[in-house]
Amino acid sequence: MNSKFLISNAEAVKEVSDVEKQLSLKKIVSMIPEDTADDILAHFNPNIMRKVFGDAELMRTAECFLRSSLNISAAARNIFMHRNTMMYRLDKIERLTGLDVRTFDDALTFEVLHILYDRKLRSEK
Hints:
This protein is mainly α and about 120 residues long. It has helices at about 5-20, 25-30, 35-40, 45-55, 55-65, 70-80, 85-95, 105-125. The protein contains 8 helices and no strands. The longest helix is centred in the C-terminal third of the chain and has 21 residues, at about 105-125. It is globular, with a radius of gyration of 19 Å.
């Protein structure tokens, strides 16, 4: 392989990495139009969403779990919580929302819903 090819590919990878760093899930979700966001939120009971997203301990648990790459033991250690307590709270989120945040798809859905829910609350104020 010639060195020009390798250098140009390395520069392209660096450019992609810089773009990826600029895009976060919050930025991507912020691009969802308001009416589409309302349609997404309409699939979930607003009272349950308010109960889950308004519960500071439940959200602290969920956010730590998500930041810990869906690793229950690591998340429990990070917030000085017994592993069984972590599992109980994740089970509670699943019972209330129907989303098992221990799976990637449901964790992503949960995070998108949380962002949309927060955005809706801010717009209503």
